[in-house]
Amino acid sequence: MCEYCRMPESNYLTVPFPIDHIIARQHGGSTTLDNLALSCLHDNTHKGPNIAGIDPVSRRISRLFNPRRDRWVRH
Ligand SMILES: [Zn+2]
Predict the structure, then answer these.
(1) How far is the CA of 13 from the centre of ligand 1 (A)?
(2) Could you tell me the distance, in angstroms and rounded to a whole number, from the CA of residue 40 to the centre of ligand 1?
């Protein structure tokens, strides 16, 4: 299951989900289990190395969802 959108991997054609660095290596993220997440190709491609984005409503910088720190139901 994608840890960002909760889509089951079985729904995703034949391509296995990539492993995402929650905090990208270029930002000092480690390659350890606490920083790795299973991610669908869509979310992995759109997130890339980003750790924040601009909220389209408030126009403020907002930290991206972190599946190790944030609760999905509040996301
Ligand atoms: Zn996803």
Answers:
(1) 13
(2) 4
